[in-house]
Write a structure and sequence with these properties.
Layout (H helix, E strand, L loop, with lengths): L17 E4 L1 H19 L6 H10 L9 E4 L5 E3 L6
Antiparallel strand pairs: 1-2, 2-3
Helix pairs in contact: 1-2
The chain binds zinc ion.
The site of zinc ion has 8 residues, from loops.
C-alpha cells in the first residue's frame, strides 16, 4: 500500500502499521447506510428523512480530513497534511 498524503505513524504507540481510510470509502459507507435506511423506511416511514439526510451528507465526506487508523492499538485520528 502506498503512503498517501497525510500518512503518519501512530501518535499513541508510534507504530507504522497505520491504514488510511479514504474519503471516497467514507462516502460509499454513508451511501450504503442511506440505502439501508431507505429500505427499512418502506416499513418504518419515519426513517425516510434520515435516509435523505444521509444521501445529502455523503458528498461532504469528500471534504472531511483523511482518517488514519492504527492496526496495533486501534487508535484513529484525523490525518494532518504534512509539507514535504
Ligand atoms: Zn497505535
Amino acid at each position: 500500500m502506498k503512503h498517501n498524503d497525510g500518512w503518519q505513524p501512530c501518535p499513541r504507540c508510534e507504530s507504522n502499521k497505520v491504514k488510511q481510510i479514504s474519503r471516497s470509502m467514507m462516502m460509499f459507507a454513508i451511501w450504503c447506510l442511506g440505502i439501508i435506511f431507505l429500505l427499512v423506511g418502506i416499513i418504518l416511514w419515519f426513517l425516510l428523512p434520515i435516509a435523505g439526510i444521509l444521501f445529502l451528507a455523503a458528498p461532504f465526506a469528500l471534504f472531511a480530513p483523511r482518517m488514519n487508523q492504527c492496526k496495533d492499538c486501534n487508535y484513529s485520528w484525523a490525518a494532518k497534511k504534512q509539507k514535504a
